[in-house]
């Protein structure tokens, strides 16, 4: 069985392969950047890096058909503005490479109902839904598609924020189980979660993560938001009734979140940074300045890209062709491993 891996050179690569995805479901925010996107831009230089706008994942919750395509293109533009360089990495749209949907089926046949039911993201989303609200079956099977995304590229390293750890564990389990049942086919991936910034919290509700679907727009900092608005939001961030600046996410979630954001922006340890501040006000001023400076070059590049829409579309077309060249043989190998008739 081990022989069936020979057709795809997933193992003997000089550099590790990186894969990750972001949904085109809303405006990307500071959490997306510090938790994921910034890692992508670093990884592209010393890895074989593949990044995907996961539009199929977005369909797990209702999307406006008139908006989805535009949002997909725009999310790609933000990736490029953040610093992804298409001459050194691959950037593409998930639905442009049909192998994702096909391998997803094989992953659904490899995952158990029990393990999918344990996914906290599913539990949260399904439980939050009001009684009569439509909950798509795909919201439940979503981690199987995510595993397929990763395994198609033989990725060893998957840069994500902390909220995706459990999905990554499942992807690992599915790879190991498939390999055990059908012979070595997939590389077993590992999550790469940043030490600072893996979970940026909402500025207004600091016990909840900053999210694209937040009910408090004042709690979320958009990557393309104007500096005055960013500064206002950070100055108004919820802290607590104490006065001491201390890094203690349990007891002081709001202040700790500001220290984390500042630490991630300037590359310092949040607990060390805390010692420099006597007042929340000074911390907020520095935090706002650091975030504005961090986002400034991204916003400038975004404006350039937005002025030339065909450029991003061409990059995505090229990216899909490169991605398909990697994904197609891996899918064929998986099909053969489970015994599907060659086509
Ligand atoms: P999503 O917005 O769910 O498509 O997430 C895209 C990427 O951003 C994933 O790797 C997430 O783990 C990461 N991410 C999302 N929200 C946050 C957050 N508040 N803090 C850090 N990383 C995040
Ligand atoms: N589920 C991820 C999120 O919501 C997005 C995603 C889809 C992904 N496929 C992926 C992330 C593959 C990493 C690798 O954030």
Structure description:
With 343 residues, the chain is mainly alpha-helical. It folds into 2 domains: 9-198 and 309-338, HUPs (Rossmann fold), CATH 3.40.50; 217-303, Tyrosyl-Transfer RNA Synthetase (Orthogonal Bundle), CATH 1.10.240. It is 53% helix and 7% strand. The chain has helices at residues 30-46, 55-58, 65-82, 99-108, 113-117, 120-128, 137-151, 165-182, 227-235, 253-266, 270-274, 280-306, 309-338, and strands at 17-22, 48-53, 89-93, 157-159, 190-192. Helix 9 packs antiparallel against helix 12 (280-306) and helix 10 crosses helix 12. The longest helix has 30 residues, at 309-338. The protein is globular. The two termini are 21 Å apart. The chain binds adenosine monophosphate (AMP) and tryptophan. The site of adenosine monophosphate has 18 residues, from helix 1. Residues 22-23, 31-32, 34-36, 160-161, 163-164, 198-200, 209-212 line the site of adenosine monophosphate (AMP).
Short description:
The protein has helices spanning 30-46, 55-58, 65-82, 99-108, 113-117, 120-128, 137-151, 165-182, 227-235, 253-266, 270-274, 280-306, 309-338, and strands at residues 17-22, 48-53, 89-93, 157-159, 190-192. The protein is mainly alpha-helical.
